[in-house]
Write a structure and sequence with these properties.
The complex is a heterodimer of chains A (345) and B (216).
Chain A lengths: L1 H29 L5 H19 L1 H10 L5 H20 L6 H16 L5 H36 L3 H32 L11 E3 L2 E3 L1 H32 L4 H17 L3 H9 L12 H15 L7 H31 L7
Antiparallel strand pairs in A: 1-2
Chain B lengths: L1 H36 L3 H31 L7 H28 L5 H28 L6 H28 L6 H36 L1
Helix pairs in contact in B: 1-2, 1-3, 1-4, 2-3, 3-4, 3-6, 4-5, 4-6, 5-6
The chains are: A mainly alpha (345), B mainly alpha (216).
Amino acid sequence: MLLLFLSSGLFLGWSLGANDAANIFGSAVGTRMVRFRTAAIVASIFVIIGATFQGEGGADTLGRLGTIDQLAGAFTVALASALSIFMMVKSSLIVSTSQAIVGAIIGWNFFAGRSTDTVLLGKIASSWVVGMLLGAVFAVILYLIVHEAFKRLHLHLLWKHTVLKILLLLIGAFGAYSLGANNIVNVMGVFVNAVSLPALSIGPLTLSSSQQLFFLGAVAISVGIFTYSQRTMKVVGNDLMPLSAETAMVVVLAQSLVLFIFSSKGLSDAIASLGLGRIPQVPVSSTQVVIGSIVGIGLLKGGRSIKYKVLINIVLGWIATPVIAGITAYILLFVMANIFQLTVN
Amino acid sequence: MEGILKTASSVIRQIDSFINEIENGLLLFREAVNNYTDGRESDFETRLRLVEEKESAADNLQRGIENDFLVHSLLPQFASDVLHLLDKTDDLLDKAKYVLQQFSVERPQMPYLIKADFKSLNEMSSEATAEAVAAVRVFFTAPESAKEHINKIYFYERESDRAANDLRRVIFQQTPGIDLAQQEQLRYFTRHVEQLSDAAEDVADILSLLIIKVML
């Protein structure tokens, strides 16, 4: 029964693996610098590690936005999020799982008659914008450093290729870790308050209830990576982002850093100890951060190749995704509560 | 990881050896043509044999490089262009060997009046090929720097055309005492030597595009 209720979250995990792994290894696989099998294995391992051991920060934030304490409610919210993503993809809008889940939680708040913390909501929404901007800034700085370093090193073309191949794998591993750490909350976050599992000890490791849920979600992400991401990786590598290996590496590193910043409790604590305030631990959209990074490099190169229509689509998505997810969640919760007689709040 | 590094190191060594063979072969070609023009047939034949050896060694290295590129998916974005570049570089020595073999087979008579012009043509054409080899060598470590050599290739190719036309003019208009058959034969050899600079120009054309791709 528990697995049945978790299925909507696991489906979200599968779609995240199928789509967002391409942001990390798309260019490397599309340009044949890294084999798909190698990319899939590395991505799966590090997504699971990141999700299980660093995924809890974002869960706290989403938990404070809406404390969904009933399993059927959590199932419905995750289902609403998945359905709205499906509808948005059909409408060719750039969609973010993070924005969908936030919208669906607000929908649950409305249905349950709970108030929404607008300050927290503002923080989450601003992190989406800041995430994209940070992606652009990091990408520009990293691009300048990497470009200059390669220029000065005068590496043989084949050495450069070999170094890039190794770096793409290492940075991809970091990217997968950050993706797992930051985005697992989109997949399993809504179940954290509704499911209580006994602590599980495996050797020296003890996994809490939420860590076990995140592990399950991360396995679903891995299944998504292995079963469906090859196609999206090839599309990203060849059509959407025809980047050189050097630029692709910079984009992935910038994206990984942004996702890491918004999911690392240690980093947030360190910055807070300096009196600089806390970094909110929120799930940000990896796709949008990648687009921010590419736009940053595009602007650095003169801005001629930037497709402004894509940017307008993103801004539309910022508004449309949470609204659609919220409405869908409200309708589905109504159906679950009144037709299926399930306790959703 | 170690395997990737070893492969890169091995292919780089093969490319360097390949370029060395081509370069040495073309230097021998320049000397061999001068030897023939000066009537030093024994030196000419010795150098022809050496050019044949270099050409064979370059071919073997090229096959090895092609094999490694495909088996290890090296430079996947540029592999076909780089292999095409190496193929065109190899053509330089193939053509040089062919020209020397034709000299050896046909033994054209060199009237005293055209010797200086023939050597001048040989110099221009050989300079174009030397710059082509230098451009290919530097392309692998500093693609932007190859542009300087490309500019020189085009310069020597034009000079080569001019020298060939001057030579043909001398052959047909200013050299008394040779019959039409000999004039035709000398024109044929003028064209052969001139074609080496055209082959160098082909290398320059491929490199120009490849530099843009690599620098993007």
